[in-house]
Amino acid sequence: MNGLLNILKPSGTTSFDVVRFIKKTLDIKKVGHTGTLDPNASGVLPICLGKATKLSNYLMNNKKTYRAELTLGAKTDTQDKFGKVLDRKDIKVTEDEIKKVFKEFKGEIDQIPPMFSALKHKGKKLYELARQGKEIERKPRKIQIYDLNIIRIKEEKVLFDVVCSKGTYVRTLCNDIGEKLATYGYMSFLLRTETGIFNIKDSYTVEEIKKLVLKDEINKALKPLDYPLKRYKSIYLEDKFYKKISNGVKIPLDEFTNKKLKFDEFYTVYCNDKFIGIGIIIKKENIKYLKIQKLFL
């Protein structure tokens, strides 16, 4: 079985719990996901089956969209509501001040990853060190906040939507916004509504997947290998190139097209209208070639 499932991960389960569930339910060995979602968060978690596991690296860099809630006035060690409260501070901000600060966090910003994270330091995960009471210096990382919109402000709680780059910690964003407002803040709710082309509206719960398997209708939920690659332009080859391509031979562009294809750009490649891989245009001795970077035969 090859393809992708758009799973709605429930809160209280890890991303690997979902992978294990899919392996067991579908009786398939090769299963992976395209980017960890915090155990206490819920939302979209694309699952790759069979040959689709080769796609993971191409999908992890996709933009992510979340609906989150910021609670002002308290600081926790995990930067979310599940952590230990370290301190509290009065909230002396207006709605206009909150809106102004939110705008300041749009664009490229520096973010220091939280101690309670799966990032590693000398082979050990940071959250393991944090549980031992250790604090390790972390370097700021560049992240991109593409969009940040407040949905509702009610007393100390701010509900908002954020579109961000890979590697963004929304709970750290809540913490940093709280500090900028001269108080504290932590994340009290997180739902991933979109990652790349996968949207929560088209997702399936684990219970729905179970029912589809029992009815032998899992194909209703299964997306084809090329489904998440729609942002790439496509190259269509004749059958005569199939053997060369499948053997990893690069093909000069002038042998199959007179179109100007961009150098160093990814393309989805089809042969006889069948998706066979992801290619890239390379240049060697002033000749441009199509080279397959990942085959899906």
Determine the number of helices (DSSP H or I, runs of at least 4 residues). 7
- Structural class, please? alpha+beta
User: Helix share of residues?
Assistant: 10-25%
CATH architecture of the largest domain: 2-Layer Sandwich
Chain-averaged pLDDT: 92
Which geometry do the CA atoms define?
A: globular
Distance between the termini: 13 Å
Oligomer designation: single chain
**Strand content range:** 35-45%
Indicate the CATH topology of the largest domain: Pseudouridine synthase
CATH superfamily of the largest domain: Pseudouridine synthase
Structurally, how many domains make up the residues?
3
Q: Give me the strand/helix succession.
A: EHEEHEEEHEEEHEEHEEHEHEEEE
Please report the first level of CATH classification, the CATH class of the largest domain. Alpha Beta
Total DSSP E strands: 18
Description:
It is a single chain. With 297 residues, this protein is an alpha+beta fold. The protein folds into three domains: 3-62 and 197-220, Pseudouridine synthase (2-Layer Sandwich), CATH 3.30.2350; 64-190, Pseudouridine synthase; 232-295, PUA domain (Archaeosine Trna-guanine Transglycosylase, Chain: A, domain 4, Roll). The protein is 19% helix and 37% strand. The strands form four sheets. Strands 1, 2, 3, 4, 7, 10, 11, 12 and 13 form a nine-stranded mixed β-sheet that branches. Strands 14-16-17-18-15 form a five-stranded mixed β-sheet. It has a two-stranded antiparallel ribbon with strand order 5-6. Helix 1 runs parallel beside helix 6. The chain is globular and about 70 Å long.
